[in-house]
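fyi for ur records
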Amino acid sequence: MDFADSEYFGTIPLPSSISEILGLAKDHSVKRRNVHLWRGQCDLDWPIHSSAYRRLVRTQTVTEKSMRRYEEYLLDHATHQGYRFEQGRTLSDFELLAKLQHHGAATRLVDCSRNILISLWFTCNSEPDKTGLLFGVHSHHVGGGENRTQDDNYLNELNEIQEFKHPQTWQPPVVSKRIAAQSAQFLYSSISENLLGSLAIGDDPKNSIAIGITPDLKAKLLIELAGVFDIRYLTLFPDIDGFGYANSHNFDEYESERW
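which gave:
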């Protein structure tokens, strides 16, 4: 297997097939329960930042204070527009942020998936000429968990975790179809300054795994993920926004069909 040196993630493997990718994931934690939260980024040269961090850093130095000011504005504005109400109930701060995130808004929540193949699709789906990053954070290195209600005020929760050196995780309820389709899980933390990015991920190799996906492999994997696993745009974005985009001028007439 080939390897590559990266600016943020050190020397990482460059597998040549999906079986090699799954083998790397399987072998990463042989002495612990092998559960990871997976993130796919289309460019290896990007650190792990939330979309809110990327939005704010365009005009300012991002601090915990500036991030909280932004989040308070976002929640207040979304509530005023009526987006806090879903199917006859009022969404919590976390649920509202999850809904906004999956409709394109920039939040502190870092998108991950409990399914490695779904994150692999996101690694491959854009920037076809760039080497992508498949990144897994081990479940032993995060706070929170699966299937847990999170009704606390979001900013109160951040006050409680600001001293933690590891990220928190939260599995959102199904407030949109795409959350279910993508096996969505979020990571979040106070703003951190470390080599990997603004998410509080330590540099201990036991905590995370980084895998590079070359341009040639990206193209092959997209065909394999769609044909073998039915992982493609229409199945990951099963709502009218996804349907509309899949049938837009960006794609050929029958590009969304598998046969």
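Residues 2-48+108-246 form one domain. thats all i got for now
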